[in-house]
Design a protein that fits this description.
alpha/beta, Amidase signature (AS) enzymes
C-alpha cells in the first residue's frame, strides 16, 4: 500500500483515516507507527498511558493493511489507532485499575463488550490509558500509575476519571478512546482538556463485568470530533449478551443527521442548575456559547430544570460502590490505597438499607422530573464544570468549593443518576488559555439529538487541539 506524506497523520480523524485506507493512499501501519512515535514524544510529561504494546499494535496494523489491500475491511474502524481505559478488561492483559493490589494478578480471559466490539471492527489498540484508583474520583492520579497531567499546562490536572483517554485524544495519541463515566468521568476530562466526550443513555453501550457503581456507570467515546464519536458509537452500541441491562439493539447510524442543525429546537440554558457556584469567567464564556444555538435557529430560554442539588443521593450510591470495590481486596492491600477512597468507602459502609432505599426514591423522582422537563425542552445546555483546571495531584482546587471532587462537578453527576445522554464540547478558552466546556443534555434515548446539536456547535466553533505539551 502506498503512503501519504503526512507529517501529522496522528491528528487525522478516524473517518478521514478510513477514507484514506479505502483509497489506498495511506497505510494503517504508517499511521500506527506515527501514533506510537507521538506517544514516545509527548506522553512522558503527561502520563496518559499505563501500558503501550507496540508489538501487538503493529501486528494488528499489518493485518489491517492486508485487509484493505484486498478491499475487505473487517469493520467500521479497521486500522484506526484506539485506546482502552484501564478499568475495562482486555483478553490477555492485567487490568491495573490504578491499583497496586492488582500487581501480579492473572491476565483477563475475555474482552469487555466495548473492547470486543472495537476489536471485531478492526480497531488497532495502541495501549491502555490511566485512571484514578478503581475510577473513584474526578481527577486522574493513582498509587499505581502516578499523576496524569493536562497538556495545556502540565502543572494542572486533566480531570478524570478518564483523564488518560482525554489527554491521549488531545495530543494525537490515537483517534478513538474508550472511557467510562459514573459521575462525569468522560465529560470532566473533556471539559478540562478541550476534547469531545459523550456519556450515552444508560444501557446504550453494553458493559461487563457489572460496575460496582451499578447503573450510574456508562461506557462512552472520547474523540477530537463529533463525527468520530458518532462513528465510535456505531461500534460501541453493538449488542452483547453479557449485559442484562443493555437496551435492545438499535441499528441507527449515529452519524446520520449530524448535519441537520438545531433549527426549531427548544433549548433550555441553565447557567447553574439552580444551585451551583460557577467561576465567573466560565459562566460568561458558556453564556456566550449558549447563544450560538440561538444564532443557528433554535429557541433558547434561560431555565433551570427545577431540582435541588442531588449530591446526597449521588453519594449514597457512589460511596457504597467504593466500599463494595475495596471489599474485594484483603486488608493488607488496602493499606496502599488512596486515602480518599478509603475514607468515602468507610462512609459508604455505614449506610443503612433505609438510607439506600430513600436515595433510590429520590433518584426516581429526579428522573421523572427530567422526563417532564424534556417534554417542554428538546435539550438542556449547561457549563461542563464549575471551575477551570487546577493543580495536578489535588482532588479539589485551593481555594475552592468543598473537599470532594463532586463539589466542583455539580453539572455532571445529576445525569448519571437520571441515565440521560450528555456530551461535552469545547466552547472556548479562559484568560489563562485553558479550555472551557459546554454540556449538552438530552432526553432519555436522545443520543442522536445530542450528537446533532454538538455537531452544529462544532461547525461554527471548530475545536482546537494542543500541538504539543505546555509547561507552566
Amino acid at each position: 500500500m502506498s503512503t501519504l506524506d503526512q507529517t501529522e497523520a496522528c491528528y487525522l480523524s478516524a473517518t478521514h483515516l478510513v477514507d484514506l485506507y479505502q483509497w489506498k493512499t495511506l497505510s494503517p501501519v504508517e499511521v500506527t507507527k506515527d501514533v506510537l512515535a507521538r506517544i514516545k514524544e509527548v506522553d512522558g510529561p503527561v502520563n496518559a498511558f499505563c501500558e503501550v504494546d507496540e508489538e501487538a499494535a503493529l501486528e494488528a496494523a499489518r493485518e489491517s493493511e492486508a485487509r484493505w489491500m484486498k478491499g475487505e475491511p473487517k469493520g467500521l474502524v479497521d486500522g484506526v489507532p484506539s485506546t482502552i481505559k484501564d478499568l475495562l478488561i482486555t483478553n490477555g492483559s492485567v487490568t491495573g485499575r490504578g491499583c497496586k493490589a492488582t500487581d501480579g494478578a492473572a491476565p483477563e480471559t475475555a474482552d469487555a463488550p466495548a473492547v470486543a466490539r472495537m476489536r471485531q471492527q478492526g480497531a488497532v489498540f495502541v495501549g491502555r490509558t490511566t485512571t484514578p484508583e478503581l475510577g473513584w474520583k474526578g481527577i486522574t492520579d493513582s498509587p499505581r500509575t502516578g499523576i496524569t497531567r493536562n497538556p495545556w499546562n502540565t502543572e494542572l490536572t486533566p480531570g478524570g476519571s478518564s483523564g488518560g483517554a482525554a489527554v491521549a485524544a488531545a495530543l494525537g495519541m490515537g483517534a478513538l478512546h474508550i472511557g467510562t463515566d459514573g459521575g462525569g468521568s468522560v465529560r470532566i476530562p473533556a471539559g478540562f482538556t478541550g476534547v469531545f466526550a459523550l456519556k450515552p443513555t444508560a444501557g446504550r453501550v453494553p458493559a461487563f463485568p457489572p460496575s460496582a457503581f451499578g447503573s450510574l456507570s456508562h461506557v462512552g467515546p472520547i474523540t477530537r470530533t463529533v463525527d468520530e464519536a458518532g462513528l465510535m458509537m456505531n461500534v460501541l452500541s453493538l449488542p452483547d449478551h453479557r449485559d442484562w441491562r443493555a437496551l435492545p439493539f438499535d441499528p441507527w447510524d449515529f452519524r446520520t443527521g449530524l448535519d441537520l442543525g438545531v433549527k426549531h429546537l427548544r433549548i433550555a440554558y441553565s447557567p447553574a442548575l439552580g444551585f451551583a457556584d460557577v467561576d465567573p469567567e466560565i459562566a460568561s464564556i458558556v453564556a456566550q456559547s449558549a447563544r450560538v444555538f440561538e444564532d443557528l435557529g433554535a429557541t433558547v430560554e434561560e431555565r433551570d430544570p427545577g431540582f435541588d442539588d442531588p449530591i446526597d443521593c449521588f453519594n449514597k450510591h457512589w460511596y457504597w460502590g467504593c466500599h463494595k470495590m475495596i471489599s474485594a481486596y484483603p486488608d493488607a492491600a488496602r493499606a496502599d490505597m488512596d486515602p480518599g477512597l478509603l475514607e468515602v468507602a468507610e462512609i459508604g459502609a455505614a449506610y443503612s438499607l433505609d438510607d439506600y432505599d430513600r436515595a433510590m426514591d429520590e433518584r426516581v423522582r429526579l428522573g421523572q422530573l427530567m422526563c417532564e422537563f424534556h417534554a417542554e425542552y428538546d435539550l438542556l445546555v449547561t457549563p461542563a464544570l464549575a471551575v477551570p483546571p487546577f493543580a495536578a495531584g489535588r482532588d479539589v482546587p485551593e481555594p475552592g468549593p468543598g473537599t470532594r471532587w463532586t463539589d466542583w462537578t455539580p453539572f455532571t453527576y445529576p445525569f448519571n443518576l437520571t441515565g440521560q445522554p450528555a456530551c461535552v464540547v469545547p466552547c472556548g478558552f479562559n484568560a489563562q488559555g485553558l479550555p472551557v466546556g459546554l454540556q449538552i443534555v438530552g432526553p432519555m434515548y436522545g443520543d442522536a439529538l445530542v450528537l446533532r446539536a454538538a455537531a452544529a456547535f462544532e461547525q461554527v466553533r471548530p475545536f482546537k487541539m494542543p500541538k504539543g505539551v505546555a509547561a507552566a
